[in-house]
Amino acid sequence: MAAPWEDVLCNEPALREAASVAVDAALLEGVLMRTEGEPNASDVVNYAPFTLLPSTVPSALFEQAYAVQQDFNLLVDAISQNKEFLEHTLASTVKVDDFTARLFRIYTQVLEEGLAQSVFLGINRSDYMFDCGVDGTPALKQIEINTIAASFGGLTSRTVAVHGQVLKVLGKSKEASHLLPNNPSKGLALGIVKAWELYGSQSAVVMFLVEEVQRNIFDQRCVENELWNRNIRVIRKRFRDVFEEGSLDDARRLYMDGQEVAVVYYREGYVPKNYDQQNWEARLLLERSRAVKCPDIATQLAGTKKVQQELSRPGTLERLLPGHAEAVARIRATFAGLYSLDMGEEGDKIAAMAIADPDRFVLKPQREGGGNNLYGEELRQVLEKIRDSPERTSYILMDKIKPQPAINYLLRAYSPLQVSECVSELGIFGVYVRQGKEMVMNRAAGHLLRTKAIEHADGGVAAGVAVLDTPYLV
Ligand code: ADP
Ligand code: MG
């Protein structure tokens, strides 16, 4: 679908001028990241990578993605409370994937002890691409749902102004006025505020659990500032700090150096490299506590790729969301083909199908953060090697989504301006709060558009592949 600025795409001097305006606008608006060389200091910062131009997004698909978000919130929450489903679904995975197994062990241990936590806060981001069918009509297809540390809700609110200015510089003021405002960090913060209120201790703080390397701190600060503006105190701590300073009292209230913590918001803890023995102990301490974890460990497990694959089996959504036939239909409409590689006849057939036609599929391990999936020839080689071994059950197989590429320019510090054929991924942020059995908040909180050059099969913004973008609805 042609963008209304198609006519300027080959006007190189105009684009160069627009790019230099764009970079300064990004710095002024706060589309910022710390640098690779100085990831833990803000003395030197740079702009986070972004597209020169917005990308067109079919408005019907954009609306569809928003309309299904509350359903996905309900679904994730239902899975997180369904021990039998999680146990059954992850049984084959925990045998071969040590990381999922360790998370699962904490999950069972905490359940056996009995949950001290009674308020639950979910912040997720459901990601989609626009699959081009045989007749060229795009369809909304879910890539995955992120139930832990879903990022860029802060920075993305600031690209709208940048892209608006770029369009104006290029003589497209009317188009600039059509860009939608977007502020996920405020929506996420309102969820945290609600959870903090329900926890019910005026003096308790919100703890951001952050990484050792904190390049994306400005994105997190956007959420933090929304909380400070509402007079809620925020502390930033690492697992290491929790190990050293964290403790529980008799009622399993969580304290950091004597300060009570109402909400733990994880921006860390989703990949194996985040954990050493001490960090696992810290995670267990947090999970055992009464504090509202965002997410609790059950909700993190609900976001695994194995769960995603099992959800696509006929009847599963209906069992998880009884009495929600319309929600089930809306959710199912976004599913691409997903296949289990569990041992047995079904898995054998799937493995053979993928080996015979690797370009139709993506092979995914139980990992987050980009850069882990296998495609094409590499997919074929790996699957051929493990096709008869239980190791194959640590992966799921998914139909490859094939979006229509569009022309854009990716702006990255120290990189020359250069035209790229690009594809985009739309994420919708969801926020919900449950107290006991009652949902007290369930919302879509805003969106994120990320765009990458087609030569990269995989990877997000943090992985250095995709860049921030703004949707232009057509
Ligand atoms: P991660 O948890 O690493 O983010 P994803 O499932 O989101 O895992 O995959 C990473 C990236 O790989 C996505 O952002 C997307 O660019 C690409 N990708 C994932 N699944 C598919 C698919 N089915 N078809 C096409 N590209 C995909
Ligand atoms: Mg992803």
TrEMBL record:
Q: Which UniProt keywords apply?
A: ATP-binding, Glutathione biosynthesis, Ligase, Magnesium, Metal-binding, Nucleotide-binding
GO cellular component term, pick one: cytosol
Cofactor names from the entry are: Mg(2+)
**In which residues is substrate bound?**
125, 148-151, 214-216, 220, 267-270, 450, 461-462
Q: Where does Mg(2+) bind?
A: 144, 146, 368
**Chain ranges of the Glutathione synthase substrate-binding domain:** 204-302
- Pfam families assigned: GSH_synth_ATP, GSH_synthase
Q: Which reaction does it catalyse?
A: gamma-L-glutamyl-(2S)-2-aminobutanoate + glycine + ATP = ophthalmate + ADP + phosphate + H(+); gamma-L-glutamyl-L-cysteine + glycine + ATP = glutathione + ADP + phosphate + H(+)
Free-text comment on the cofactor: Binds 1 Mg(2+) ion per subunit.
Q: Which InterPro entries match?
A: Glutathione_synthase, Glutathione_synthase_a-hlx, Glutathione_synthase_C_euk, Glutathione_synthase_N_euk, GSH-S_sub-bd_sf, GSH_synth_subst-bd, PreATP-grasp_dom_sf
**Quick one: which residues bind ATP?**
144, 305, 364-373, 375, 398-401, 425, 452, 458
The EC number(s) attached to this protein equal 6.3.2.3
Q: What class of enzyme is it?
A: ligase
Q: In which pathway does it act?
A: Sulfur metabolism; glutathione biosynthesis; glutathione from L-cysteine and L-glutamate: step 2/2
Does the keyword 4Fe-4S belong to this entry? no
| GO molecular function annotations of the record | ATP binding; glutathione binding; glutathione synthase activity; metal ion binding
Q: Does the keyword Iron apply?
A: no
What is stated as this protein's family in its record? Belongs to the eukaryotic GSH synthase family.
What is the protein's known function?
A: Catalyzes the production of glutathione from gamma-glutamylcysteine and glycine in an ATP-dependent manner. Glutathione (gamma-glutamylcysteinylglycine, GSH) is the most abundant intracellular thiol in living aerobic cells and is required for numerous processes including the protection of cells against oxidative damage, amino acid transport, the detoxification of foreign compounds, the maintenance of protein sulfhydryl groups in a reduced state and acts as a cofactor for a number of enzymes. Participates in ophthalmate biosynthesis in hepatocytes.
* Description of how the protein assembles with itself and partners: Homodimer.
What is the protein named?
Glutathione synthetase
Source organism per entry reads: Podilymbus podiceps
